[in-house]
Hints:
Radius of gyration: 25 Å
Helix content: 40-55%
Distance between the termini: 30 Å
Number of strands: 12
Strand order of the largest sheet: 1-8-9-7
Bound molecules: zinc ion
Amino acid sequence: MRIxxxxxxxxxxxxxxxxxxxxxxxxxxxxxxxxxxxxxxxxKNVDPCTDFYAYACSKWQAQNPIPSDQPGWGRFNxxxxxxxxxxxxxxxxxxxxxxxxxAIEQKIGDYYQTCMDxxxxxxxxxxxxxxxxxxxxxxxxxxxxxxEAIRLQRQGVGVLFSFDSTPxxxxxxxxxxxxxxxxxxxxxxxxxxxxxxxxxxxRKQYVEHVQKMFELLGDTPQKSAAEAKxxxxxxxxxxxxxxxxxSRRDPNKxxxxxxxxxxxxxxxxxxxxxxxxxxxxxxxxxxxVTEPExxxxxxxxLKNTSLDDWKTYLRWQVVHAAxxxxxxKFVNENFNFFSKxxxxxxxxxxxxxxxxxxxxxxxxxxxxxxxxxxxxxxSGKERTLKMVNALEKALGDDIQNLSWMGADTxxxxxxxxxxxxxxxxxxxxxxxxxxxKIVRGDALGNSLRxxxxxxxxxxxxxxxxxxxxxxxxxxxxVNASYNPLQNNITFPAGIxxxxxxxxxxxDAMNFGGIGAVxxxxxxxxxxxxxxxxxxxxxxxxxxxxQDKKEFDQRTGCVADEYSGFTAxxxxxxxxxxxxxxxxxxxxxxxxxxxxxxxxxxxxxxxPVDGLTAKQRFFLGWANVWCQxxxxxxxxxxxxxxxxxxxxxxxxxxxxxxxxxxxxxxxxADAPMVRQNAxxxx
Length: 681
Ligand SMILES: [Zn+2]
C-alpha cells in the first residue's frame, strides 16, 4: 500500500478489492444509466432538518438491500456494476482465439478467457504453484531470503516490506525509491496488536484460515496448525514496527530520506547489496525509508526466526497471493476469511465479475482504451473542465474572503490553487503493454507476469522527473483523486456519469453531485495533509505561524465533530483518521454551492417538483452517498478507511452550513443545525 500518493473520494484500493458486484443482477437493466434523482425517493415521513440523510436515502436503502455477494452497496456500486458489464462485453469480444486480433486485443481476450476457464484451473490443481513452492523449499540459508524476497516482490507477493517509487517529498519533480512497511496479510497493523475481544476473535479466525490454506497445500492438520502459528508470529513481529494509520497521514512521519548504507545499518541481517542489485531499480544512492522503526523490527525478526519458519511464512504469502487464480477450494477458503469474516459478505460473486475485476487490475489501460472509445466523447472532457474552472474560481473567492487567514498566507494559497492541474477522462498517452506476455491457459502465470510488469513500470520511474501523464488507475474507475505530491486532480471517465453528472439533470443536481466531488478534490490541496505541500508538490511550510494556529483550531473542530459519530455498535469514527476527507467534504460542498450561486448570478430558477434549486443542490450531494453496509464491513472500514460512512458525509457536512439551514427553513435547535458549526474552508 503506497502512502500519501493520492487522496481518493471513495475508498482505499485495498478496500475496493472487497467490493464486488452482485450475483443476481437487480431487476433494473445494469447496462442502462441509473436515474440521478427522483423526488419519489424522498422519505416524506422524515423531517430533513432532523435527519437529512434519512430524508434523502432511507427509501433508496429500503429498495436496495445489500446483494449477497457484497459487503455493502451504494450508488457508487450501481455505477461500478454498469461499468463491469461494459468491460465484460469488451473482454468477451476478444476472447476467441482469432488471429486477426491486434496485440492489445490478444492480451485482454486471452487473459479473460483463461481466467474464465475454471475447468482447466481445477484440472491443473496446485501444479502451477509448484515452481514457486520449490524455489522456497530450496533456500539454503537466511542469506538466501533476500534473493527469494526479490523474486516474490517482483511478482506482487507482499513479503517482508514493500518497495516502490515516489516523488521526493522535498524535491517533488524528481522520483526516488521508497521502502515501506508491509509483509502482513491482514488489512492493518492494528489487527495484530489490539486487545479488544473482537480483534482477539478475528486473529483466532485468521490463524484458522492460514491453517486451512496449508492443509489445502497438502500439509497435515497438525503441521498446518504449527505453520499458521509461525505465520502469525512473524506477521505480528512486523506489525510491532509498523506505523499506525493516523500517524501515516502525517507526511513528516513517513519521510526519512536515507542512503542505502543507512538503511542497511537499520537492518543488517537483510542483504541490501544483493537486493538493490536484483530488484530492478536503477542504481539507488538515497531513498525514502517511510518508517525506520519497521526495518529495525524486521531485522530483529530475521535474527530471531529460523530459516524453516521463514520458509513457512514465504509459502503462506505465495498461496495467499495466488489463491484467486487457483482451484475453487482455495478461492472459497480465501473468500471465507477475507470477504465473509472480515467484511460480512455472504456469497462469492460470479466468476465473470471476478475475472473482470482482475483484468481491470492487471490490464487496466489496455481495457481502458476500448472503454473510452465506447463511452466517453470529447464533449465529456469539455463539460467537466467547465465545471472544474467554476469550482476553482469559487475556491479562490472563498480563500480571498476567509476571515481567519492573513494576507500573506492567502497569497500563497492562491498561488497553490492556480498551480493545480487537471486530468480528466483518460490519459493522453496510454501505457505500453508490449513487454507483458499473456499466455492462453496460464492463469497464475498471467497474474504473476502482470504484477511483475506493473512493478517494473513503477520502478522505471526512479531517477527520472515525475511523469504527470502516468495515471494512478484506469479510466473506467468510479473514483476521483488529488495528489499532493503533484498538485493535480484526476477525474476518470468512470465517475463522469449519472448519478454524479447527468446531461439531463439541472445545474443544482450536477453541482451537488460531481461539482461537490470536484470541490472535494480541490480542497484536499488544503486539508491537514495537503496544506503541508507547496504549489510544486514539495513538503514545505508556506503558512504564517498565526494562520497555521487558526487552521489547526478549525480542523480540530472537524476532528471532534466526526469523532462523536458512531460507526457501528461500540465503534466511533476516528476523527483524526478521517480528518482530511471530512475537511474536503465540507470545503467541497461549500465551494460547489458558491459556484452554483455564481452560475445563477442572482437569477435562481423556479422550483422543480416542489423543491427549490438550493434544496435540490443538497439533495444532489446526499444522493451520491446513499448506501447500505454489513455490520462487519462498517466495523472494518471504521478501522482503516479515511472516509466517513455516507450518513456522516451528508449529515456531518450539511449541519455545518447555514446555507442548508436556510434552504430547508430549519429551526435553530434542529438536529441538522450544529450549535458549534465547524468551518475550515
Ligand atoms: Zn478525498
